[in-house]
């Protein structure tokens, strides 16, 4: 099977996948790579706690729980 | 005598660098496009294109033009580098999952009709490479078998399977 045997409809669909070519220099810079790695998008760590943009109450509530746990933790070691 | 030797080696080095630059200009775009369509990660592909040429520069003595074309050789190098990086990344993802964003496939599970990008991403890895090299890079099945280091028969069967799956995913009439 070759490219010519692919149906027209699938041809059209596959042609929709355009790739923008960035300007890539020949030589790599380690510093640039490190910076890109650091600034790469990462998963939101607050997602686990269910904190979203408008849940200010939860943002205020979680440190309180943390403080309470910290405060009462020594009780279990007495 | 030694100065003439030095001049010859400097000349060779300069010619080598010019050749490398020519190769880079000629092949960076197809290699980037192949890698991007495969993993859809701009930064990773950016690094991989550079790594491919750095590696080629380092091991260019291993290249035998009687065995394969320069295009096939570079594509194979880029593909191997990408597979290694993806494996490494998936190992890291298991250890530190919070560092990685969800893939496109997981982010939009309820879309009625898939885009071609998402459909390609949903193909199994081994089928994806075959369809990309066939359709977007017009490579022969023999070249693809050299790039992926698989028999020509396997290329044919994977191509057939990938087209069937793509038709299903994109809801294309047969």
Kindly describe this structure.
The complex is a heterodimer of chains A (78) and B (174). Chain A has 78 residues and is mainly α. Chain A has a domain at 50-77. Chain A is 45% helix and 0% strand. Chain A has three helices and no strands. Chain A has helices at 8-15, 30-39, 56-72. The longest helix of chain A is centred in the C-terminal third of the chain and has 17 residues, at 56-72. Chain A is elongated and about 75 Å long. Chain A starts with 7 loop residues before the first helix and ends in a 6-residue tail after the last helix. Chain B has 174 residues and is mainly alpha-helical. Chain B has two domains: 1-100, RNA polymerase sigma factor, region 2, helix turn helix motif (Rna Polymerase Sigma Factor, Chain: A); 105-174, Arc Repressor Mutant, subunit A (Orthogonal Bundle). Chain B contains eight helices and no strands. The longest helix of chain B is centred in the N-terminal third of the chain and has 38 residues, at 2-39. Chain B is globular and about 70 Å long. Chain B starts with a helix and ends in a 5-residue tail after the last helix. The relative contact order of chain B is 0.10. The model of chain B is unreliable at 104-110 (pLDDT under 50). Chains A and B meet through helix 1 of A and helix 1, helix 2, helix 5 and helix 8 of B.
